[in-house]
């Protein structure tokens, strides 16, 4: 019996159906007074506050965010590179050693990467208090594990035949690995290293929204108090900084080989930049907070006993919390994957690519909690609204990826279909989207895993899912519930990671 399967280009569009249940809930809940507030907010972009006091506060807050991002990126990159090497099978095989140390380390790194940096920030805030380095550690801990996983996967997937040949001739293990594996690893190191810097800036802004300092705090306070002119003063600073970083990373990705030479030298350059970033970020933080330069004074929260854990487990509505978290993930992932393809299909002529690039940049700039706060100005809290905020931010990421892929691919197939008389939608769907669809769906599967982790972010603001229950437990110092919720969320994200990896490999191999 013949099984009918949707073609990959159609699978890129089908997730956009998530827009229907979201809009069914969101549109009727919009109130007229909120529309006026949205208009005032948009008009504030044309007249940002130029008050010297406001600008001075925003510039200092931006410095805190940049220093946090630089320090966290440098620390996580250096520690992630070391952990990637030690957790790679090829490292131990090249020395003739057993593989169990790498297996133990890989298992140990699963827990820190499964916990979102916001959860780390809230936990460290309870342990160390409001210290400038709390945000740095909250980003560096999960990022180190994420970097280690990605680079280790790349290292273990490389062809080992040249390495084995050199080892059999008597070459030292370290020299053989550098000679045979470094050239192939360089593109991944450079590309993912630059991507993590961009993520670190967004994470530093996000942590500020939840009270850990920096520009996110100023933006959140301005938005909540409806001071839109001040809000846009800070937002324009963030936009300028993000665009400058994006252009620098684009240059970094497109011209590293011609500019910096051999693979080994480019890897040393990256490690040098990571070290400089960690040092500069740390010194910058010390300059911004000279009175808080003392060592972190910590106090561990009380560990609950078995009876407290059992009691907390019966108090929590696990079924509804997990179902809401999964519903939020599915709706947001559908919007994130489907909207870019749908927009490109409906609008792909003239200046559409340039305008779309600006739209995707704007969507991925704001952290989801700030987007959700803006939506709440004219709407009621709901799971659909939280999914919309989370989906729009991730649509900005996927939209940029799709746009770059379409710009870089061969256009002859699309031109041939156009000359043959195909209509605009068909020629774009099968001439442009089809060659990109499998790679796009593979990254969409990875992004769904990221969205599952990020549900904690909008859950804290939108009052839904495990995120909402976690912040409620933290605010009441109900530590038994806190540890149970963190464990449940970690298990959920690790399961999502495994499913995402399997689906991504399926699309990449098909």
Polypeptide structure, described:
- The structure is a single chain.
- 80% of the residues lie in helices and 0% in strands.
- It contains 23 helices and no strands.
- With 510 residues, it is mainly alpha-helical.
- Helix 4 (52-86) runs parallel beside helix 12 (228-254), helix 10 (173-209) runs antiparallel to helix 12 and helix 21 (424-462) runs parallel beside helix 22 (465-475).
- It has helices spanning 8-13, 19-26, 32-44, 52-86, 89-93, 100-114, 117-128, 132-156, 161-168, 173-209, 215-224, 228-254, 256-260, 263-288, 306-315, 318-346, 352-365, 368-376, 383-408, 412-419, 424-462, 465-475, 479-509.
- It is globular, with a radius of gyration of 24 Å.
- The protein has two domains: 1-30 and 304-510, MetI-like (MetI-like fold, Orthogonal Bundle); 37-160 and 170-300, MetI-like (MetI-like fold), CATH 1.10.3720.
- The model has no long low-confidence stretch (mean pLDDT 84).
Summarize the helices and strands and which ones pair or pack.
Blueprint: H1 8-13, H2 19-26, H3 32-44, H4 52-86, H5 89-93, H6 100-114, H7 117-128, H8 132-156, H9 161-168, H10 173-209, H11 215-224, H12 228-254, H13 256-260, H14 263-288, H15 306-315, H16 318-346, H17 352-365, H18 368-376, H19 383-408, H20 412-419, H21 424-462, H22 465-475, H23 479-509
Helix pairs in contact: 2-19, 3-12, 4-8, 4-10, 4-11, 4-12, 4-14, 6-8, 7-8, 8-10, 9-10, 10-11, 10-12, 10-14, 11-12, 16-19, 16-21, 16-22, 17-19, 18-19, 18-21, 19-21, 20-21, 21-22, 21-23, 22-23
